[in-house]
Amino acid sequence: MSSIGTGYDLDVSEYSPEGKLFQVEYAHKAVESSGTAVGICCRDGVVLAVENIVTSKLYETNCNRRVFHIDRHIGMAASGLLPDARAVARHAREEAADYRQSHGEPMPLSELASRVSNLMHAYTMYSAVRPFGCGVLLAAFENGRPQLYGVEPSGVYYSYHGYAIGKAKQNARTEIEKLKLAELSAANGVKEAAKIIYSCHDEVKDKYFELDLSLTSAETAGRHVIVTGEQWTEASNYAKAALEEHDSDDDV
Amino acid sequence: MSASFYTKPANNGNAGVAMETSWDSNPGRQRTLQPITTGASVLAIKYNAGVIMVADTLGSYGSLAKFRSIPRVLRVNDATVAAASGDLADMQFLNTVVENHAIDEEIHEHGIAYSPASLHSWLTRVMYNRRSRINPLWNTYIVAGTEAGQPFLGYVNMLGVAFKEDCLATGFGSHLCLGLLREALDAAGGYAGLTEETATSALEACLRVLYYRDCRAYNQYQLANVPVAKPAQVSGPHFLQSDWSVAKLVKHYTE
Fold it and tell me: Which residues in A lie closer than 8 A to residue B108 (C-beta atoms)?
């Protein structure tokens, strides 16, 4: 059961007697109740995938993607409050553009991750603002090396081989650990990421979702590309087929 | 993050009325007085299925042919290219701004990109505003591309004078070559009758005339071709063949 921070959870500037910042923890809850986002570093690229839960069939498809371009070579997947994620994306884009204009070269992902982390952390220190209710996964393929960073509402960030945030993060992380990432090509990684999203999706609670997929790899020449068209259909079919197989196994 | 909820568009005002000299408030700061490292002519012509633009690769330092492979043609996106003559530092500055805008538009993925007409319009506003502050970007730009299946060609200079035409030239090119380009168009009955090959050879002939007669021209150039249904291509450096044997006929040439 969640601990109730009565009296110590009104401002993010207040610690509880146990040394917790309850507002930050509540922000994490916002991430945990949102669709899963997954990032996988493959042999020659990075894949991002998001279970973009859609609450109404009236929405146009792909109107609220949860995968963003941050400059040409960096991608961001978000879980949690989408408007907060957009604010983070906007800031990250400014940072990346400024860096490119001053340094004459694209911003290294490690540097951007640090800036995003600083931003999100800044919003955990003052009572006048609230922490960002989103977690983000940042991906790039730099100098032949795939890179993935995950930043959480507290501002903490790590570099990962593979990571998942959101509703089914535990299941997804377990699935990622089963993959042999060093041998997995990015093209296959796209299919595997789709499969993980589908297998972790809770059919009962959230009926309808869109699969947001993106790829940054040697094949895309380091550009962050949103996966659409044939490649998306192939990945989504692979994922659905794997689900059916799994379901039919249960019948035995 | 800024606390303001709405910012009004910048108000330049004062243009032509009481101009405060910037060195009162900021002694180190100066206004543009003269171009330093310069690029010579840019030439462009529409043809039946697109538009072609050429610019040589020389950066002149006064009368010194100092930098001999400066790219002056910028590929903005698949449908738009731009080239500038005049001060090359100002050109490189503006090109960086344009490129950054183009990247911003790409990453938002709305399917909206700079069309040549919108780039031309934006450049016009920038150049005119700078001239209105008596601190111009000392360039003449030609924007070329395709818009709604039609070729586009536009001119903007440092005064903010802007217009669109079927053939354009800057600098010496406007004196020596515009007539030749117009003749080519007239002979074909308009750009719709001009083939890519004829357009290219007309431009090359003009570049040769410039190399013979303009002291700041050069025989190495870039060529940009923006066909209507295909992505823009910038190629180069191309080399111009020229024949200087007539020099021997000049009295006192060899003494």
Answer: 69
Does B31 have pLDDT greater than 70? yes
Give B154→chain A minimum CA distance, Å: 27
**Which residue of chain B is at minimal alpha-carbon distance from A104?**
B96
pLDDT of residue A217: 96
Q: What 3-state class would DSSP assign to B251?
A: coil
For the structural domain made of A22-53+62-247, what CATH number should be given?
3.60.20.10
CB contact under 8 A, B106 and A69: yes
Interface mutation target, options A93, A102, A125, chain B, most CBs of B under 10 Å: A93
Per CB-CB distance under 8 Å, the chain A contacts of B109 are: 69, 226
Active site members of B: 32
Q: Does residue B149 lie in a domain region? A: yes
Is residue B233, in this structure, part of any structural domain at all?
yes
Strand residue runs (E) in chain B: 37-39, 42-47, 50-56, 59-61, 64-67, 73-77, 80-87, 139-147, 150-156, 162-164, 167-169, 220-227, 233-239
Q: Which residue of A has its CA nearest to B97?
A: A101
CATH number at residue B193: 3.60.20.10
Would you call B100 an interface residue with chain A, using a CB distance cutoff of 8 Å? yes
ipTM: 0.75
Read off the pLDDT of residues A10-53 as tens digits, 9 standing for 90 and up. Answer: 999 999 999 999 999 999 999 999 999 999 999 999 999 999 99
- Whether the bond into B237 is cis, omega within 30 of 0: yes
Q: How many domains does chain B have?
A: 1
Q: Does residue B107 belong to the interface with chain A, where contact is any CB pair within 8 Å?
A: yes
Chain B residue with CA closest to A129: the answer is: B1
The answer to whether the predicted template modeling score (pTM) of the entire model surpasses 0.90 is no
> Mind listing the pLDDT tens digit for each residue in A71-114?
999 999 999 999 999 999 999 998 999 898 888 899 999 999 99
Residue pair B143/B115 in contact (Cβ under 8 Å)? The answer is: no
A50, A35 in Cβ contact below 8 A?
yes
Judge whether A93 and A71 are in contact, CB under 8 Å. Answer: yes
Residue B196 DSSP SS3? helix
Could you list the residue range(s) of the whole structural domain that residue B196 is in?
A: 37-240
- The CB-based long-range contact list for B240-246 (8 Å cut-off, 24+ gap) reads B240/B204, B240/B207, B240/B208, B240/B211, B241/B208, B242/B208, B242/B211, B242/B212
Average pLDDT, chain B: 89
User: What are the boundaries of each domain within chain A?
Assistant: 22-53+62-247
Interface of A with B (CB under 8 A): 68-72, 87, 91, 93, 97, 100-101, 226
Domain assignment present for residue B148? The answer is: yes
Residue B71 lies in a domain: yes
